[in-house]
Amino acid sequence: MPEFGGALLSVNNIEVIYDHVILVLRGVSFEVPEGGVVTLLGANGAGKTTTLKAVSNLLRSERGEVTKGSIEYQGGRIDRLSADDLVKRGVIQVMEGRHCFEHLTVEENLMTGAYTRVDGRGNIGEDLDLVYSYFPRIKERREAQAGYISGGEQQMTAIGRALMARPKLILLDEPSMGLAPQLVEEIFEIVKRLNENEGVSFLLAEQNANIALRYSKYGYILENGRVVLDGEASSLRENEDVKEFYLGLSASGRKSYRDVKHYRRRKRWLA
The domain containing residue 268 runs over which residues? Predict the structure, then answer.
């Protein structure tokens, strides 16, 4: 388990079932420490997004529920709270696929993130300026309709909208999806700065293990709804299994795609 700071979020042995019969998560446990950047890694369908939605309490809208275990945030149970109550407590999810309001301008999208706040226009205006200082690219496009900006700018808008709620913890789902490598690097650099300068903690769900492990402090690898491996990001990057199955490398160098099935049969942690 991560050791830098006390646990901000603690997920304890949860199971998630959809439609009362489909078991998706099996005894998942992990922690996000105060001021931490933690990554959930795994292939498509491993359970990463479901885990984030379990934390943010968005499962019910998809006929899912946490049937075992508990989820604690700042020392208290949150798995029975509504999603909007969680937002008020500082837990925000940035959904996979960005989900901007396409008919609104970039700035109007950002302002929707402050919907639950009651601390006055002055403070909200200061936070808007803060968002623009981290994302100068979307400041230039603030009057543009969100449906007509690039995918990278939409991702920046979605993260900026989350910041407008003054979060303590941001759940960031597949931030690299569909973006050019240069933009992915830019977004992860901003995540790093937000963590270091503003004290925002991050729980990432990401398939791109290479970049996620470079910017995270701790990682958990999910397979078929279970945590099969965890450790400091630096040690996971050097782990031979992780190199082979998630970074495309092994002791003999990069492997070809035709060998993937053979590799899956040799995954030692699933034995």
Answer: 239-271
